[in-house]
Amino acid sequence: MLTFAQPMALWAFVALALPVIAHMAYRQVTNRYLFPSLRFIKPARIPRTGRKTPTDWLLLLARVMLFAVLACLFADPYWKEPSPPDATKVGRETIIALDLSPSMSGWAGLSEAKKRIDGLLEKIEGQIGYVGFGAGILAEVAPTEEVGLVRSAIANATTGYGSGNPQTGIDRAAKLFSTGADERHLVILSDFQRS
């Protein structure tokens, strides 16, 4: 299927009117001269208003085609293969990424994050997954309908050693999402400190 990366550029097709207007606007108006020996000849009706229809049809067609090709090229067309219907549609997926770096252990940060996750698990619809990250990935549960697996993984989560790196959790969560998901949501609970 042909699609366009820049569909707003198709407004350039309005420019197709420019060559037509240029061909219609070309005027060769005749001038009237009085000459004494022609006074007995009746004046002919010579059009003095210019042309009302386009001339040079082949040249006009070439110019219109040039503008059409330019408009299509500006729209950046590409061929997109239609995706086969996926029998494994899963609907909505949510992955909870929990920071397990040492900085979360102070000021009851981890216990507060676990309480918030418990509240979220009651509200989230669809499949739920979990990623626990610190300096690397410490625990994970792929998106599943079984909320109990996610609850137990979060309940058993403890802070690790080494500085926290949220990017590792985000990268791993992105890989855990299935290709058949209609909606993908990532919830990150972290203090975003590197200690």
TrEMBL record:
Stretches that traverse the bilayer: 57-75
Protein name per UniProt: Aerotolerance regulator N-terminal domain-containing protein
Domain Aerotolerance regulator N-terminal: 1-77
Protein species of origin: marine metagenome
SUPFAM superfamilies xrefs: vWA-like
InterPro entries: Aerotolerance_reg_N (IPR024163), Double_TM_dom (IPR011933), vWFA_dom_sf (IPR036465)
NCBIfam families according to UniProt: two_anch (TIGR02226)
Keywords (A to Z) from UniProt: Membrane, Transmembrane, Transmembrane helix
